[in-house]
Amino acid sequence: MKRGLLIVGAALLIALTAAAAFVLTHEPARRSVTDLKIEATPERLERGAYLVQNVSGCLHCHTAHDEAKRSHPKTGPLAGGGTCLTEEIGFPGYVCVPNISQDPETGIGAWTDDEILRAIREGVSRDGRALFPMMPYSVYKDMSDEDAYSVVAYLRTLEPVRREKPHVTKINFPVDFFIEMEPAPIEAPIPTPDRGDQLEWGRYMATIAGCRECHMEGKGGMEFETPSGVVRSSNITTHATGVLPPTAEGFVRLFRSYVDGSVADGHSETDFTVMHWEDLAGMSEDDLRAIHAYLLSVEPADNQVQTYGDGGA
Ligand code: HEC
Ligand code: HEC
């Protein structure tokens, strides 16, 4: 009996040591970068500008903005870096949204095309570390090769902004360990879906714009802790508990109401939304209609969400 226990104890000790060694030496899954050179064709620059400015929220995060306003309109130099999460506000470490302008020292001007591409879709920084997943590479991993090339080509045209980020990224244990498990290398080509297929296209655009992730495939209820309180993503399915505008016209109108950073119907100026409305307001009519058509096809979810205040989903 005693011997049995000892063996179990020894096995446990070995397992614990192995686990500790794994924790200490683990590195994110990553591929080596190649010397890929992305050609900046006019088509790519146009598509990249649209994706970066109006679809995927890159500039929304990577630019300083007015945090007193509902949609956080941009105020800082474009791509010069955004907000910081710090220990002072209860975050386990420090992460600042970095400068992704073309400045070679404080931005990404000296990064190679493939280093930028890998950061965006695979979550690995230039030095090989895992990026904190506030950078939504879990969303961008589904961006097609052509679209991702377009994004990189466009980023190259951004004015250099000289601005150091206030804190170097540092995530405390054990959160840092879990983050190392987030990156995943992309090993197969990702084609761009057929624009002619409205549902398929709408689904793709709703993916790379983050709608599907933040709205939990439509049913909503994802919680965001913000300095002004808890915000939950709306149910955007056709169920009676959802708030999806029933017509494509109404859906387009809702997005356009944010064009100048003004407030959409029924919301106060300070009801902070984590959604990048200001950017999405400039999405093309065809794309908004395709996303709406896709949302109409999503299974209706019975989920009453209280977006602001206590109460939960
Ligand atoms: C929700 C906010 C958010 C959005 C949206 C976002 N990013 Fe980021 N991004 C971050 C944060 C935060 C980091 C830094 C993470 C870290 O240091 O671990 C980052 C890091 C990066 C990096 C690495 C730069 C460096 O110095 O480490 C690149 C390149 C980048 N983002 C490009 C993009 C592009 C392109 C898009 C749009 C397709 C985008 N980001 C969208 C928050 C965001
Ligand atoms: C970063 C997370 C995030 C992303 C990305 C996001 N949303 Fe939202 N969305 C929210 C949150 C949180 C709310 C609730 C607060 C508000 O009304 O803005 C919301 C609200 C909504 C509403 C309800 C607005 C109303 O009238 O009350 C609709 C419709 C919507 N989102 C659609 C979309 C679509 C379509 C996309 C993609 C193009 C998208 N969202 C992307 C987080 C997100």
Keywords:
5 strands; single chain; 2 domains; mainly alpha; 313 residues; binds heme C; 3-stranded antiparallel beta sheet; two-stranded antiparallel sheet
Tell me about this structure.
This protein is mainly α. It has two domains: 42-179, no CATH class; 198-297. It contains twelve helices and five strands. The chain has helices spanning 2-25, 42-55, 58-62, 113-122, 137-140, 145-155, 175-179, 198-208, 211-214, 248-256, 277-280, 285-297, and strands at residues 84-85, 93-96, 170-171, 223-226, 229-232. Strands 1-2-3 form a three-stranded antiparallel β-sheet, with no helix packed on it. The chain has a two-stranded antiparallel sheet with strand order 4-5. Strand 4 (223-226) and strand 5 (229-232) form a beta hairpin. Helix 2 crosses helix 6, helix 8 (198-208) packs across helix 12 and helix 10 (248-256) crosses helix 12. The longest helix has 24 residues, at 2-25. The mean pLDDT is 91. Bound molecules: heme C (HEC) (2 copies). One heme C (HEC) is lined by residues 56-58, 61-62, 95, 97-98, 100, 108, 116, 119-120, 125, 131-132, 134-136, 140, 151, 169.
SSE order in H/E notation? HHHEEHHHEHHHEEHHH
Mean pLDDT: 91
| Overall SS class | mainly alpha
**What's the overall geometry?**
globular
What strand order characterises the main sheet?
1-2-3
- Would you count the extended β strands for me? 5
SSE inventory with pairings:
Elements: H1 2-25, H2 42-55, H3 58-62, E1 84-85, E2 93-96, H4 113-122, H5 137-140, H6 145-155, E3 170-171, H7 175-179, H8 198-208, H9 211-214, E4 223-226, E5 229-232, H10 248-256, H11 277-280, H12 285-297
Antiparallel strand pairs: 1-2, 2-3, 4-5
Helix pairs in contact: 2-6, 4-6, 8-12, 10-12
The chain binds heme C (2 copies).
